[in-house]
Write a structure and sequence with these properties.
about 290 residues
Length: about 290
């Protein structure tokens, strides 16, 4: 797939006490796009033009990523407050918010923390996970989550990744794709560039190092349902976040529509047309 033509504008804005870099396109109701790991705003390049025809689309670099300020903490409450701060920074009280991978983790928590600020939500790949009886690292025992355990010790993951950030990005993207031709070397470099230099990858890994802490600071999420109208986009061939992880989502997210797309983990990049179609259909009535 060829590079998406850059039709968007770049900007910076202060929200929740730090400086965020973002790209934006279009006018209309606010539509915020939250990327995952190990990405940045550029993972939404195929959404900006199509969604920008009806919405004011904003795709920020998340806290600590790429051109956004590298400043902690990186716990889930701070990340949710970042989203609320961004919505307010763009002059809105509420927004449609979409999140892929880590963006979806933030989004599901945001739906419990600040439901009044969400018009609709769109989660890609990562389903709602009800609060478990014990910290998540004690429950994610499957071998496909080994990388999360590898990330836990400060310094170790950095020492393994930083000497070859290009190789790390290439492996992460290609090994989790259904069709490896979905991304070019130039596009891979855009993601790798966001992590260059000593400590460049650390903030992104700190998100994972907060997994258990996030559980500890959100006891009030126990038994809660997400009542916001939700679109759950599942990737049929995601090797890590498998679609069956969303089985039974209706129990916790009663107003959910589930769409399955034939692609690997990088849904909005591997299958942009199908992703855009599903999103636009779901938010057609947002004014």
């Amino acid at each position: 797939m060829s590079n998406a033509a850059e039709t968007w504008k770049h900007g910076t804005v202060t929200a929740n006490g730090i400086r965020f870099h973002y790209i934006t396109e279009g006018t209309g109701p606010l539509l915020l796009l939250l990327h995952g790991f190990p990405e940045n705003h550029y993972s939404w390049r195929y959404q900006m033009g199509p969604l920008g025809k009806r919405f004011c689309v904003v795709a920020p670099d998340l806290r600590g990523y790429n051109l956004t300020e590298r400043k902690g903490p990186y716990d889930i409450k701070t990340l949710c407050d970042d989203v609320l701060g961004l919505i307010h920074a763009f002059g809105a009280d509420r927004a449609v918010v979409a999140g892929h991978d880590w963006g979806a983790i933030i989004l599901w928590n945001f739906a419990l923390e600040h439901p009044e600020a969400l018009a609709k939500l769109i989660a890609l790949n990562v389903s709602f996970m009800p609060r478990g009886p014990k910290p998540p690292l004690e429950m994610l025992t499957d071998a496909r989550f080994d990388y999360i355990r590898f990330f836990q010790k400060p310094g170790e993951a950095e020492a393994a990744i930083e000497p070859d950030i290009d190789g790390f990005i290439r492996t992460a993207f290609l090994n989790n794709a259904a069709n490896r031709n979905f991304i070019s070397e130039a596009e891979l470099k855009v993601f790798a560039d966001g992590f260059r230099g000593p400590g460049g990858i650390t903030p992104a890994i700190e998100y994972y190092r907060n997994f258990n802490r996030n559980w500890e600071i959100t006891p009030h999420h126990a038994g809660k349902k997400v009542m916001t109208p939700a679109l759950m986009i599942l990737a049929e061939k995601d090797p890590v976040v498998r679609p069956e992880m969303a089985d039974g989502i209706e129990r916790y997210v009663p107003n959910v529509k589930v769409v399955r797309i034939d692609c690997g983990h990088w849904t909005q990049q591997e299958a942009p047309e199908a992703t855009n179609r599903a999103i636009l259909e779901f938010i057609a009535d947002v004014r």
